[in-house]
Amino acid sequence: xxxxxxxxxxxxxxxxxxxxxxxxxxxxxxxxxxxxxxxxxxxxxxxxxxxxxxxxxxxxxxxxxxxxxxxxxxxxxxxxxxxxxxxxxxxxxxxxxxxxxxxxxxxxxxxxxxxxxxxxxxxxxxxxxxxxxxxxxxxxxxxxxxxxxxxxxxxxxxxxxxxxxxxxxxxxxxxxxxxxxxxxxxxxxxxxxxxxxxxxxxxxxxxxxxxxxxxxxxxxxxxx
Length: 224
Known about the structure:
Layout: H1 4-8, E1 11-15, H2 22-35, E2 39-43, H3 47-54, E3 60-65, H4 74-86, E4 91-95, H5 98-102, H6 106-120, E5 125-128, H7 136-149, E6 153-155, H8 168-178, E7 183-187, H9 193-202, E8 206-209, H10 212-217
Parallel strand pairs: 1-2, 1-8, 2-3, 3-4, 4-5, 5-6, 6-7, 7-8
């Protein structure tokens, strides 16, 4: 079983609601600092504020790009990526154009991911495939496109799609497609320690959650 510190190192604490305020961003950074979380995921407009709030904490800022629908042009996503990195983002979680994928426009869907990977210039990119909106065959194709485009991770969900968030079966499917050397991030509806542990058992090596404090508080941390 993971210790609390080990689990904290693979959580992306998220403050992504569109109504989030500067006070909410500061509060999220405090969660990251207090619990020793390694990553803090925010909307791109809040990256500078998140970096400032984190201060000397080891947590690194992540920006979402093309969030939450993935419908922006690749050029817009690329520019958003560049700006977020300039503001201090150390990872990028981009929403792929999954509507293009569902339309059979495979080359355009692949180019969308590749544009962000190029703009990131070595900063790790996670491709959000919005798994709840896809068939299993589409999920497999989305993962393959993301890997071929140079994404470091595939990610289940934005957490904002009405069809739902992460499931154990989707995480297992994604891990089977990408193999052991590409990350799998489970995100969307992960609110308890049991949820997080189930996703890890299914193959996730990163967890996206806004209920970070509750998840970690539920896990006994042995004395050093």
